[in-house]
Every structure is written in structure tokens, then in C-alpha cells.
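Protein folding task:
====================
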Amino acid sequence: MRTSVLLLLATFMPTAFSPVAAQSTDSSPFTPSAVWSSPTRSSDSYRTGNGHPGPNYWQNHVDYRIEARLDTTAHRIRGSVRYTYTNNSPTPLQSIWLLTGGSPSSQLVDSSEVSSSSASAPIQISDVSVNGTQNSATTVSTSTRTQVRFRSPVAPRGGTVTFTLQYHVPISLEGRLPTRMYAPSGVLYEIGHWYPRVAVYSEQRGWAEVPARRPLKALSEYGSYDYSLTVPANLIVAGSGTLMNSDSVLTSDQRRRLMRARDSHRKVAIITPDQAGHPDTRPQQSGLLTWSYQMNGVRDVAWAASPAFIWNATRINRKEKRDGLAMSFYPRSSMGGQAWNRSTYHTQKGVEFLSNRLTTYPWNTMVNVAGPVSLRSFPGLSFCSRSAAGYRLFSCTIQNLSQNWFSVMASGNEERHPWMNKGLQTALSVLAHRTLYEGEFSPKQDAAFAPKGNAPAEGLLPLMTAPDASSITTPPALQDQQWRSTLTSYKPAYGLLLLREYILSPNRFDYALRQYVQRWAYRQPTPEDFFHAINDATGTGLSWFWTGWFRHSWAVDQAITNVSYVNETPTDGALVTFELKRKLPLPVEAKIIESDGDTQHLRLPVEVWQQGATYTARLTTDSRLRTIQLDPNGQLPDVNPRNDTWSSQHSPDRANRTP
């Protein structure tokens, strides 16, 4: 018995079979020109056709100096922000938009304008001054955002403006961020969306990128952060970025333990369970302490605080980087061998895994915090549920960590193209589930991927067969709500894994993904930038895939429609006809077993469909064929698996079979 692998590249044998009308969301017949001639964005001076920023690409920049105070009596944050905004665009800017959170006044648009004194946004703004001058700007607020209007425009191509404001924001009780919870060991604060962020002004849409419907998903401008947090002295703070004044807020013993953690690949307890909440863990027992942090090249920062944190840390091994720390903060109630006791190792292994696959994690710390919020991530800081353990804790940690690459470094517009972040995060999470801890937490099956627990390809069939289903690239506001999560995470992630493991190869895809991250790190890529970068780095024209899987919701249906023999003699070869019965073309893989037991593995490139919806492959055979199985590894979400197999038992007297 022999086994062979057959790769057929360009032996086209037209047949009498005509294309079958697609029954997917695009009901027109399969037409090669419609698939391979899809329009793409042409190259310009801002964004090139090979997936690079163009020579005239620009984006604006903002430096933040935040001074905030936690009021534990009124459950409120009060603070001031100094913004230094650089306008690199070719256009003078008369105003700047700030993101202030809150609930929009309608589901789709926010058309109500109110004065700054009666703004309904939860972040309340006052005392705006420009370059140190009071009353030099006016503000107009909607329920989710505030426009700061200057008397004089900010000059283009490098002009700057410095303005300051006062603000305050309430802290909810186990609600939306910023929030707090109470546990037997003490109060725990998780603080995100806690200051006004500067929205993105882009070359494509100007300030029209500022969303009214989902303010917390809004894209904010890249910049540097220098922020200080004044809190009661008994609280331990965990923040995004690097703690700049450890001498003032940590004990000498805690500082020594952190130094030891930087040199150890094993977990070091900075605050042990027995020490958590004890006065000796603080350099002073009363009054206030100010914690100072810095972080550069990010769009946002967040923090947490509690008197009862257990605190663990260990070194992150990174190429060309030293002193990186993975850290976890959690209360005693979250302890457990399969619970938060493993969080620091999940964080460490996750950062190392993603750094090796993509590009090195650039910041000094990565923090995981247990509390009332789950699956929320900010640069360098992750929130997972205090009750998470086992699979749930690992999955939340990895999904949150991946956002530092596909939301922080290379960030698609979360409001318009959430799949550029969520889909890539989910695909990387699937690989991490397979790889880390020797697959202990594999396969990934949760709300983001294969939510019903079945095979991932099978789980996509309801969407693939749904009439008028939206596409991945349809703006979320226009998508059918029942498919929104699938179109944001599940389908794009599976499509990227299909590209990696069925269409290209892991080596080629992984290289291309690294190239995309490196080209667009700390910039603002669009879907076309992503598509062009992958095309260029793989040296492959993939427009047919981007068109069918991402821009449309075309279905997959490959079929075996005929089997015969050359000269009716098996030893002269077999002729197997495959047909594309739906509109999405993909390469063909088939397992062929002959009656003498010999096995062939046939692979046909996607280009066989460029001549039409049918293709006949000629096989070298020694005996009659016994069975043929399309997609033998079950990787394709084929909407009609009944026509994926052929068996001679169905036609005992002759080879020909028409399904």
C-alpha cells in the first residue's frame, strides 16, 4: 500500500457542468471576474497599495499630565488634565473633541447639543484654559463628547496648543467603569474611562471619527502619559505603565522583593496573603499618598486600588528588553490553585508567547487585576473577574493581553471596524490555548469563539446559511444584532486561522502578521491597510479571500460531481470533477483511497476556479477508486457536507456518480 501527496497546479480540464447559482447572501451565480477583480483602494501618498504608511502619512499626538484624587467618601474622582496637542495634519484646527463617556441620547446618533454647564456626560468638565489663559475657549457638550473651541486655530504641520481643565467623575457600585466593589477584606476600585481623552482626527474622516453611539469604543489619539493618583495611604495601587516613585509609596521590603522578581522566572510574593491588608504593608498608616506613573505610546491608561491586594510578580523574558514584570493583584477571596494563584504565570507566559509571535512587548509591566469587571483591557493592565478560575481565568487573561498588540499597538477603529481588534485578538488567543501549558486549556470554546462548543467550522454554519446576513466589514450599527458577536470575533478569527493553516502556511502567515504589526505600530490602520500588508508580506494575491470572507458573506460549498476513468481503464488514470456550488472559492483538499488500499492526498490551488465553477483533476491510479473525501480534516464551514464524499459502493457497476 502506498500513500502519496498530489499537488496539481494548472491542468485545467473544462467540463460540461455549468456554474450553479449561489444560494448565499449574494444570490448571483459564481463569476470568476467578480471574485478576482474586486476593487481595492489604490495607493496614495498617505497609505500605499503594499500595506505601508505612505510618505505623507500623518497623525496627531497628545501628551497628558493628569493629577487625580480618589474621594472614598463621595466615591468620585476629581482631577485636572493638562493636554499638549500637536497638529501634524495639513489643516488648521479650530477645535478639538474630547471623549467623555456616558450613554448616548439615542441608539444611533447623538444630535442633542447642550451647554457645558448642563452636560449629561458622566465626566463633568469645567475651568478650561488655553496656554494659561482662562475663558480662552468655549465648550459644547453632547451626552458622550465635548468639543473644545479655540479662539485661534492650532497651526498645521506641527503646531501645538496646551490647554488644561478640571473634571470629576462618579464611581459606580459594581457597574460600568470606573467602579468599586466591597469584599470582606476591603473595598476594591477598578478605574477605567476616568478622564477626558482626546479623540482621533484622521485624514480620511476628520472629526467625523468621533462616535456618538458607542463612546467607550472610540478611538483616542496616541500620546504619552504622566499621571499621579492621590489616594488614602492604606490603599495599594496597580496602574498602567511604570511606577516612578516607589521609594515614596512602597516599603523597603516590597522594593527588595520587586528587585528579586526582576531576576526570577518564578513568582515572587510582593505582598503575601498573610500580609494583605496589614498596616505594616504601608510606609505610613494615615493620611494620603500620591502614586506617580508614566507610559508612552498608548491611547489610554487605567488603574486599580485596594487595601487588601495580594501582589505577586515575576520576570518577563523578552528579546532586547530587560526588567519586564508580569504582576497580579487580587483579594484573598480569589485565591486558589486553579484560580488567581496562577494569574501571574498566565500573564508571564502570555506576554512571552505574543512577543515571540508578533513583536516584543515594549512596556515595563503587564498587570492582571481581580475585581468586579471581566474581559476589559487597557494598555499594560487587564481586568478579569474575581471569581474566574481554570479555563475562565486563562481565557480572560490571554484575550486581554492580546489587546496590547491589536488595540494598543496596531489599533483598528473599534467603532467602525471592531473585527480588526477583536478578530485578531481571538485568533491569537486560539493559538495560545493550543500552545501554552501543553494545551491544558485547549480548545478555545467561549463567547468569542465556538460558543456552542462544537467544531469551529461547524459553528459558523448558521451564519453562512442565513439569508441576508451582514458581512464582517459592515459597520456594527448596521449589522443584525444576532450576528454581531460572530462577525466581530468568531468569523474573522476563524477566517484568519483558515488563511494560516489551510490557504497559506503557519510560517508565511505568521511572518505577514508580524510585518503588519511592525508597519502599523502606533499608527491607525484601516481594513485595506491590513489586507494590503498581508498580500505584500505573503507575496500572494488574496483579494478573492478578502472579498468573499470579509467584504461579503459568501458561503462555502465544494462538491464531487463526477468520477470516471481515462479510456475506462483505472490504470490509465482517474478523472475527478469538483464543483463550486456556492460563491466562495477556496483551495481543494481531498483524500482519495483506491481499492488496493493506496491513498492519495490531493490539493488544488484556488486558481482552479478562475476558469469557472467546475474543475476536473486527472489522477494517476493503479486501481479503481474506493472513496473520495473533500476537506478530510474538517477545516471548511461547508454548508452541504453530503456532497463532500464519493464512494464506489454507491455505484457498484460503474465509476461515474452524479450527486
About this structure: The first strand starts at residue 3 and ends at 7. The longest helix spans residues 484-503.
